[in-house]
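Researcher: Please generate the 3D structure of the following complex. Treat every line as part of one assembly.
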Amino acid sequence: MEEKIKVHLADDHKILIEGIIAVINTEENILVEGYSLTGKEVIEWAQNSTADILILDINMPELDGIEVLKFFKKKGIKIKTIILSSYDDVKLVEEMLALGANGYISKDSASEHIIDAIKAVHSGEQFFSNSIKDELLKIFTGKKVDPKKRPESTISNLLTAREIEVLKLISKEHSSPEIAEILNISQSTVDTYRKNLLKKTNVKNSVGLAMYAVKNKIV
Amino acid sequence: MEEKIKVHLADDHKILIEGIIAVINTEENILVEGYSLTGKEVIEWAQNSTADILILDINMPELDGIEVLKFFKKKGIKIKTIILSSYDDVKLVEEMLALGANGYISKDSASEHIIDAIKAVHSGEQFFSNSIKDELLKIFTGKKVDPKKRPESTISNLLTAREIEVLKLISKEHSSPEIAEILNISQSTVDTYRKNLLKKTNVKNSVGLAMYAVKNKIV
DNA sequence: TTTCTTATCCCCATAAATGGGGAGTTAAAT
DNA sequence: ATTTAACTCCCCATTTATGGGGATAAGAAA
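Model: Done. Output below.
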């Protein structure tokens, strides 16, 4: 009687995607209409999408989930989005909500939660993993946080897109010459980014940068 | 007529596990007999296992795939193991082979490759993702490497107490001169520890060391 | 006892990172 | 139209890090 819920997946790991498809296929009224392996693909897809729900991994190379959500917000694209994350990070959840995400599930959670999340978000609710709910409770009961006073100074506006790219590569143990080659820019430029990153993040060296990246879940 | 191939999965992301189960369930003669979510669980399971194949994620918190393989080798446990990795890293592949792994597939590859890998490894062959094969070819054609001269000795044991001390200080953004002063030893010694740490952990630089420390909850 | 591990130190050399300066182009915002 | 932000590139110099080799003393393990 009712239409199937159309879902689009975005994750850089194809195995995970095919796994989720297999899981979702056990559900009668949910249909995976396609998937994207990179942030860029998601953005292209989004231009002419008729899907109901997007399940979006935040950890993708180059253009990650955060950037995708920002793009949506900027362009006024309204797609109900469920974040799929490797980590339970309240900061990230807050940022995602501010960027218009409708749900947040951890990759640690059981796969049936994906089904639950899709159904909930499709019917207009929000959905969170139990693990992340626990984390949230701690914050919102312990200290009361004004939801309007959301983190204005997220990494994304502290660091530029390019700086984040460089930071990610640094965190993946790449040297400046390597990063220069990967990004197709000169080593001088990479070194400039390193300097700016050190200043902006207020850490001492590359190790500090990597730790910063870990702490802020940008790797 | 023939017995089903019994497979055990090990990955800290339950969603990925359930996804792989769903994929494998489409295969008639392969059966997932269980799964482990941590390295410790794998080791416990391995004591009384009757499975034919273990599919092992290398990136697990605390006790990762490398340590699991080392444990197997030490205890003489013989389980055909397929490594499931997020990265295409030749160094890692070499290390895994030296530790007795029988296959190496990337999470980026399509899920049917898991099926192929299971079948290949079960029949005594080795299996590698195409992406990693390309990488390997580059190495083994460019420079000829004696397969017997595999990094057996380079990646030996766990870290010593002193090495861990140094690793902690590195992860706290200290430089070698600083560490030398803190520990009251010469900088030469600190540098020796750095070298040993790089070898033992098989990472490229200090950033890699810091990440290793994070992954293994040393910091 | 002999071997192995750990902790300590040194030499050499090269590669990489850090820290300061300046500067051009483009695109967006005011 | 002018300013600003982001991205790009270069000079200089110094400090750190990496990679190879070797070495010694104390203590544990075989």
